[in-house]
Design brief:
Beta-Lactamase; 4 domains; six-stranded mixed beta sheet; IrrE_HExxH; DNA-binding; Short-chain fatty acyl-CoA regulator family protein; ScfR_C; transcription
């Protein structure tokens, strides 16, 4: 005797409705039922009756056999295949439990299948990249250097402490130029063409630090501080790098440059003095520029480093992009999800500040996982000191956790919990916001639907799993 079982078609019904571009209200009108009943059917809280099955087939001209197929059996089969992956080998997964999950919780089943699909495709992409052979990715040293800095929250205690001691010596000597003079080094300012378009060069034979005379005051001071970092802080920088092994010399060279810049910033903005001023001024970047005689971008850099144990301040992520969207710098002082890939979402105001150069734009942000941030963005200008010399306009942005935004003058008295956040993604390939009209490419792990039934406003529509 045949077994009479209730027919549950929730996920299949939901896929059908979405593929045809229908709302629950529209489907309810077509089937002459209530929207709440459609919702119950889609959540498998009501079985599909024979009458409802006939209505679906007649209204949408579908084959009853295709509609009435057992989703539970299909999910069970697919989940069983997925759970054979070696990553699950040490977990006891009885067949009965898998069947119960597929039948009783189709939504959870869809989520697991989608996650595994994304995982498998990413693993395949990584395997293909590695199979191509080492050394073919010219940006690998840059990424390796970024990971090194991010893994340490962009804070290096030995360098910062040495910089504070040196800053006190320099102040007592009457300034960096006078301090270098005491070390037997003369500072000279020369036209860029004499320096062969260099900004800074150290003439070791004559013990002269040569600087381009077109640099502004903040840039001159920073280049002098960079030279001091390369010489007087060499031991601390080398020890920091010696503790790690890198895939190639290029990574070590990039990090030597980055840590010298870190040391220069620490000299110009000593940790204790700068951290106190930042807190007192509400992290007002322009005010800090005036107090320490540095540039907007230099202050933004330094704000990412305030993670000394016991003296932590607001944690910031920093990014710098050009008008084409190329990311030329990332610094992470807070362990944010932006660290490895962030910066590619056009909905983030860092890509829009080029329209209003020099003005600060603030924005509340929300990632797909629900994490919320507060962002400050502005353009900065490099080069161009002299007629006919090329100027480079870039945008920089700082982002902090939304719950810390109240400590910033830029957030005013806003309540972070009540501020609506702009929904952004880390990058299109990792963002699963299906309704985003600004999407450039599909996310990893999602199958794109054909548009014969429906052409949505967003560039792509996706299958359920």
């Amino acid at each position: 005797m045949a077994e009479n079982r209730p027919l549950y078609l929730g996920p299949r019904l939901r896929r059908l409705r979405r593929e045809m571009g229908l709302t629950q209200q529209a489907m309810a009108d077509d089937l002459e039922i209530s929207p709440s009943y459609v919702a119950l059917l889609e959540r498998n809280q009501r079985p599909v009756t024979a009458d409802m099955l006939l209505r679906l087939a007649k209204t949408y001209r579908l084959d009853i056999a295709d509609l009435a197929g057992d989703d539970g059996e299909d999910y069970t089969r697919r989940l069983t295949e997925v759970l054979r992956d070696p990553i699950f080998a040490d977990i006891d997964l009885p067949a009965l439990e898998v069947a119960d999950l597929a039948t009783s919780f189709p939504g959870v089943s869809e989520a697991l299948l989608r996650l595994h699909s994304a995982y498998s495709r990413e693993q395949q992409a990584l395997a293909e990249q590695r199979a191509a052979g080492p050394g073919l990715d010219e940006n690998e040293p840059v990424r390796e250097a970024q990971y090194f800095l991010a893994s340490r929250r962009n804070y290096f205690h030995a360098i910062d402490q040495r910089a504070e001691d040196l800053a006190a010596e320099i102040e007592q000597a009457g300034g960096a130029v006078a301090w270098l003079g005491g070390q037997g080094v003369r500072v000279r300012f020369l036209p860029p063409d004499v320096l062969m378009d260099s900004l800074r060069r150290f003439d070791r034979h004559n013990q002269q630090l040569l600087l381009a005379d077109t640099l502004d005051g903040a840039s001159r001071a920073f280049q002098i501080a960079t030279h001091i970092a390369h010489t007087a802080m060499r031991t601390e920088i080398k020890q920091t790098l010696r503790a790690e092994s890198f895939s190639g010399r290029a990574t070590a060279t990039l990090l030597l440059r980055a840590l010298a810049g870190y040391g220069a910033a620490a000299l110009r903005m000593p940790y204790g003095k700068f951290a106190r001023a930042a807190e007192q001024r509400g992290y007002d970047i322009d005010a800090l520029c005036s107090l320490f005689g540095v540039s907007f971008e230099q202050v933004a850099h330094r704000l990412t480093t305030l993670q000394r144990p016991g003296e932590e301040r607001v944690g910031f992520f920093f990014i710098r992009v050009d008008e084409a969207g190329n990311v030329s710098k990332r610094l992470d002082g807070a362990g944010f999800p932006f660290a490895a890939h962030g910066g590619g979402c056009p909905l983030w105001s860092v890509h829009q500040v080029f329209r209003r150069p020099g003005e600060i734009a603030t924005q509340w942000l929300e990632l797909p996982g629900g994490e919320r941030f507060f962002s400050i963005a502005r353009t900065v200008v490099g080069g161009g000191r002299g007629y006919g010399r090329p100027r480079v306009i870039r945008a920089v942005a700082l982002a902090c956790a939304a719950e810390e935004a109240g400590r910033l003058v830029y957030a005013g008295k806003a309540d972070p919990a009540s501020e609506p956040g702009t929904p952004i993604g880390v990058t299109c390939r990792l963002c699963h916001r299906a309704a985003c009209t600004a999407r450039a490419v599909p996310p990893i792990g999602r199958d794109v639907l054909a548009d014969d039934y429906l052409r949505a406003a967003q560039p792509y529509t996706f299958a359920e799993s």
